[in-house]
Amino acid sequence: MTKKQIKQYYLTYTVAAVLMLAIIYAPFAASGKTFVYREDGVAQHCRALIYCGEWLREIGRTLVTEHRLVIPEWDFSIGLGANILTTLNYYAIGDPLNLFTAFVPARYMPYFFSFLVLVRNYLSGLAFSAFCIYMKKSRPMGILAGAITYMLCSYALYAGTVHPFFVNPMIYFPLVLLGVEKVFRREKPWVLIVSVCVSAVSNFYFFYMIVLETIIYVLVRCICTYGWKRRREGLLMILKIGGYSLVGVLLSAVIFLPIIRTFLNDYRIEKEYTIASFYGKLYYEKLLSSFVSGLSLGAYTELGYGMPALLAVALLFLGENRKKYRAELKLLFVIETLLLMSPLAGHILNGFSYTSNRWMWGYSMLCAYILCELWEELTAMSTKNAARLLAFSVCYTAVITHCFTMLRKTRVRYLLPSIAVALVLLAVCLFRRGKQSRRAVQAVLLGLMLAGLTQNAYRLFETRSIPETYRSAEQINAYYDGKPEKAAKKLQEESEEFFRYVGNPSRPNAAANAGTYGMNFYWSLSNGNVSDFFAKTQTYVMRFYSYRNLNERTILTTLAGNRYYICEAGKTQNVPYGYRKVDEQEGCVIYENENALPLGYCYDSYITEEEASAWNGAQREEAMAQSIILETEAGKELQSKDGQIALAGREIALYTTKTGDGVTETERGFTVDEKGGTAVFHAEETGKEGEFYLCMEGYGFEGKGKQITLSVNMVTASGKEVSREMFYETKKSKWPSGIEDFTVNLGCPGEEIREITITFPLVGKYSFDRIYLWNQPLTDYEQQMNALRKDHLVNEQIETNRVSGDITLEDTKILCLAIPWDGGWTAYVDGEKQPLLKANYMFGALVLPEGEHHIELRYRTPWMNAGLLLTIIGVLILIGIALYDRRKEKPVQK
Questions:
Q1: What is the pLDDT of residue 289?
Q2: Bridge partners (DSSP) listed for residue 637
Q3: Measured between alpha carbons, how far is 190 from 408 in angstroms, rounded to an integer?
Q4: Residue range 209-218: mean pLDDT, rounded
Q5: Cα angle, residue 823 at apex, residues 821 and 829 outer, rounded to 5°
């Protein structure tokens, strides 16, 4: 293609893409909905864009007003406090498109979010077109057909309107392969280096998949190009491509390296997943039809390329044209299809996590490229090829009709129009020839492709139910306008001290957007030390990366620096012990913790984690009210109370008094034959004081369910009822926590407990090593908190990447800082660097001698300095490559 033809192509593609996107997404406009999905879209993705915009504006404001480049790296508004980059890189920070959020006010972000969905679709087709034009394998019409198929495949539509950044690899992968091809052809490596760098910076998760898919491509390319005889050349080419790619990774290291560190420390990296040898029978029976119709197969397997793409693949293997270069495509298609059919491949490509085919963008590019390359042959087939494809289409129709008949499904109707048109088209190819016939065939084939993709999209959105599943901008902004956050913001502006609060309702990540210090967290990558705290204290949370508070457990909540419980009127049923009503504002009732602790408070003794390892989670909680728990010995200057802690908490046995219909008690639990079955427990002499926890050890489930929510209902002697729910991920779930011991807070009823009823939602076997009631006394709670508060941090200053304060001590003590322990914190006492100890499983601590001290904590993202050094090395290597290339191009003077 000439430069003029290329310009004309891009103009044609732009017009075609805009028209198709308008048609495809018309149902959203008709329903008045954005592309913001009701769950993760509202809770995470749109919130992340709002946060990213404010974060960028803050950097800009500091640069303009103070003439300093200061990048905020830590934020106490993210959960209990978290690293900004490592938490939000997966969602927003690093994606070049999200730089524009700096210019978008929060109230308009839902619209910008939707606009980016369209932009990503468009850019994916554009990147695919650039690759195809460089490869020079087809005329403009064929490239356009492949680009539209790629842009509007079911993966792009399915993922793009739920997790928009899942479409990013569809943009980066063609560019990475374009860079690979330039290296193959001895051209400059800039495209490869830059595309690898941008991919790594944008999203570590998909970069991992891009690397694996690129390795497969390069190996197949080298095998087919060089063969065994020229294996040395092939090996050198692999090393060359790997070397240039490594330069791209080095350039990204300042961001990429800290993300990798966080990922490796995430609790999920150590979890074991149950990986099946094969998918279910239904998966394979629907696979052929899904290639055309895009019917979801589960495990994120979304295809949907239309009938022309299937005919192109069939022609690739059945056609009489046996060109050598087609061997690469055949081998790639066989390899990728085998990966598609193996759960183990989905496990590996998903970062050795649960089985998920989120790499379908790679398979989609291959299928779209096959359509692009064989487009000319499809529109000018020989009699033999037409006859073979006609026979293939008839067999295909028979097979999928049989499969759907066996499944008693009627979804075959989605395929019949496309198949019928394809059969007519192939029949025409058998008997007609000439340019006019070819143009007619091209027009029909293109129309068939566009109609099939449109039908797939409408079926998908119909199944998903746009009015119920997606939110309008007005709904989103109303949801984000949380009353507890408004009240907390006002309290925060009036207060001179740091405090945390619990909001009810607690909307995911609300504090992050409001700039308040809540306890709510729902992001994929989390601090492993916080997860360790939940595990060691057996605190019930939905997931370690999804928590709303500390299960309202009195001691834990206070030790975490919580001062307020803010709830909308009428939602005051879960107010923790020791809180009193102090105000009403912003439509909320505000309760204050009468025993609240500041950001930094002091212990005069410690115990080791080894000592605490023999206790359950409730006993560790009680111990932390008396003595700080450290990983190791603190030294002679501080008293160790190993073996001296007095624990008053007591276990209360539970006895099953009756079971509901369909529930049978077994030696280790219950067998439930009917949904909603119940078991009623009785506890004798529970007492009236303190908190009561329902403790389950060794909890497990065998059955079809992957996620279970047990309902727990407690009835007191006077008839008062307290209800709680316990969400549990089974081993079959995609996200198993691996935790089998739970402690569910039932509150402080203030009277004897009559009975506890557990409702089992699913049929199956529920097992428990032990299930019992725990009474956590609070008799000494006020006295213990007063002792911790006696010596505390004053003059607190919370600044960008810095926390400081002063403290005066009469004796040697250990200062506990209610800041999640992170390797990025560096502590300075009176200007001298001092080790920051890990305490109470997730906080930081400093051993301080008597006297007046100034405390300062500075934060720097872990591994960022090392990453910056590697980035500088990458820049130097890049300069060296440029100088070397320039020297090679310089003509030799005679």
A1: 85
A2: none
A3: 54
A4: 97
A5: 75
For the cut 60, the answer to whether the pLDDT of residue 108 exceeds it is yes
Specify which residues 843 forms β-bridges with. 820, 839
Closest to 141 (Cα-Cα) out of 364, 413, 450: 450
SS percent in the chain: helix, strand, coil, step 5: 50, 20, 30
Beta strands in 446-573 (DSSP E): 500-504, 521-522, 546-547, 562-568
Contact 703, 770 (CB under 8 A): no
Stretch 228-244: mean pLDDT? 93
Sheet holding 669-672, edge to edge: 663-666, 669-672, 764-767, 700-702
For residue 857, give the H/E element and its range. strand 851-859
Which burial class, exposed, middle or buried, applies to 694 when counting CB atoms under 10 A from its CB (0-12, 13-18, 19+)? buried
Residues 6+ away with beta carbon under 8 Å from 888:
none
Strands 753-760 and 677-682: antiparallel
Cβ atoms 377, 315 nearer than 8 A: yes
User: What whole-number distance in Å separates Cα of residue 121 and Cα of residue 119?
Assistant: 5
- Cβ atoms of 312 and 146 within 8 Å: the answer is no
Tokens 């213990």 appear where? 784
Helices within 432-482 (DSSP H only): 435-464, 466-469, 473-480
How high is the pLDDT of residue 892? 46
DSSP tag of 44: I
- Domains delineated in the chain: 3-33+105-464 (no CATH), 483-598 (no CATH), 601-647+782-859 (2.60.420), 650-776 (2.60.120.430)
Output the six-digit token pair for 359: 């790499």
Amino acid at residue number 431: F
Helix axes 435-464, 281-293, angle to 10 degrees: 130
Query: What is the rounded distance in angstroms from the CA atom of residue 218 to the CA atom of residue 336?
Result: 14
pLDDT at 879 > cutoff 70: yes
The pLDDT of residue 737: 64
pLDDT grade for 775, boundaries at 50, 70 and 90: very high
pLDDT reported for residue 809: 95
Rounded distance between C-alpha atoms, residue 250 and residue 893, angstroms: 36
Determine the Cα–Cα distance for residues 3 and 866; give it in Å rounded to an integer: 44
Say which residue the tokens 């066989």 belong to: 334
- Binning pLDDT at 50, 70 and 90, where does residue 384 land? confident
**Per-residue confidence at 405, pLDDT binned at 50, 70, 90?**
low
- Matching residue, tokens 């956590």: 776
Give the integer Cα–Cα distance in Å for 430 and 433.
8
Helical pair 231-265 and 168-184, crossing angle rounded to 10 deg: 150
Q: Rg for the chain (alpha carbons), in Å?
A: 31
Q: Which tokens sit at 729?
A: 């991920």
Helix, strand, or coil here: 825?
A: strand
* Helix spans in 560-616 (H): 609-612
Q: Which two tokens stand for residue 408?
A: 């008693």
CA angle 657–662–668, rounded 5-degree value: 60
Question: Largest Cα–Cα distance in the chain?
Answer: 106
Read off the pLDDT of residues 284-333 as tens digits, 9 standing for 90 and up: 888 888 898 888 888 899 999 988 899 899 999 988 765 655 889 999 99
The angle formed by the CA atoms of residues 494, 499 and 504, to the nearest 5 degrees, is 95
Band (830; pLDDT cuts 50, 70, 90): very high
